[in-house]
Amino acid sequence: MLHNNNTIKYNCRLRRGSRDNIIFTTIILVICGMLFHVRQVHSFATVTAPCLPLKSSIGRNNNNNQIRCATVVAVNGEASSTDQAQSEYMWELRLNVNEKARTVASVCTSGTLCTVSGHEGIQGAPFGSYVDYVLDDGGNPVLLMNDMSMHTINIEQNALNNEDGSNGASNLVTLFTQLASDTSEQSQDVSRCSFTCKVEKIPDDSPDMDILRMRYSITHVYADQVMDSPIFSFYRLVPEKIYFVGGFGVIAKWVDIGDYKNAAPDILSKDAAIIVKKLNREFTEDLEGMATHLLGVDKLEYIRVTNVDRLGMDVRVTRQQGTRRNKLMTDEYRIGFRIPVISVEDAKSEILKVFQESWEKGEGVDWGDADTPPGSTVPIMKIAADGLE
Asked: DUF2470 domain location, by residue (predicted)?
């Protein structure tokens, strides 16, 4: 009997000890969770991304480190600049230029191919043609071309049979492609790329020929009717230089070839144009409220979304300058998402959250949290300022 009582007491001590361990472990986990949450909130306080003026400042003594720093606009607190080297906890709010270039090349399926003319009377002159293309796994544009087309003739003369440039003409070609715009007036706002390339004729026994044929037939419905013709052949453009333009006055930069090949297109690339069009058409009041309450724009003329990607959206805001109505200034802002999105539905949710917080700020909604009033944690940056005065 004594043995049994001791056993019972021992088991009770074990259960009490286990319960104490569970309580201690729970307290530790709660504390860690609170610290993690604080760290997450802190990470949205400052951000880094290029901040370029619309008007070029090349040649000036620029002491404000515009290229290396990002300015967080004053609507989310006092404006400040933060060196990129100190961005330990900072979110990247914009795609890098390599991702942007790869996204443009992936979304577009046609462009203007510029070859060096060999035609009598215009020898050596650039000759532009409309062409369709797809990308191979390395991001190289692949074209299906008719042997009798003028651009194919130019390529045969000056690109394929002129590797050393011995005939005096360049052996390079340039493919220009740009994203679609809603109207012709907005065509300067969209991103575009120029790929200056060497040309390779793809043999029928190329390891990736089956994949290229399938991609071409899926992307271009006419391809099945002509790709087996003896007068049609596949050509691969291998980039030597890539030049990216993000829109009028926003960013223009040469892209490293290796970085481009290693980059992946944005996950929203196929749907971004539809989202942008819907926002500009159906959410005008929400966009105007966002400009007024989150961006602090006075005398707003109009606001328009120019791009959406997994990290946020770009908006172009035009406002009156001074007392004259015909004096307008246009700036571009980056509205960041708190977390990178992985689907169209996620992007819609993040955008609606921004609209909701701007409405709450405008209506003076108070949730009782003085440290984080509505709109205070939305990452916002002024990425381009109008210098065309």
From this structure: 275-351
Question: 242 and 108 in one domain?
Answer: yes
| CA distances for 12 relative to 2, 7, 17, 20, angstroms | 15, 9, 8, 12
Residues of the chain with pLDDT > 90, as a percent, come to: 50
Give yes or no for residue 11 having a pLDDT over 50: no
Residues 154 and 246 in one domain: yes
Structure tokens at 363: 């209506």
Alpha helices in the chain (DSSP H): 2-43, 97-107, 150-155, 209-219, 223-226, 257-262, 272-282, 284-293, 344-363
* Number of folded domains that form the chain: 3
Q: What is the pTM of this model?
A: 0.70
Residue 27: its pLDDT value, please?
A: 56
Same domain, 118 and 258: yes
Residue 114, pLDDT score: 96
Q: Which two tokens stand for residue 71?
A: 């300015």
Provide CB contacts within 8 A for 348, sequence distance 6+.
Answer: 275
Instruction: Indicate which CATH number applies to the domain containing 152.
Output: 2.30.110.10
Domain that holds residue 158: 99-262
Backbone angles phi, psi at 76, to 5 degrees: -105, 30
**pLDDT higher at 299 or 136:** 136
Note the pLDDT tens digit of each residue in 288-297.
Answer: 999 999 999 8
Q: Residue 219 pLDDT more than 80?
A: yes
Question: Is 389 within a domain?
Answer: no
Pairing of the two strands 173-178 and 192-201:
antiparallel
Domain end: 262, 281, 303, which one? Answer: 262
Domain co-membership, 207 together with 288: no
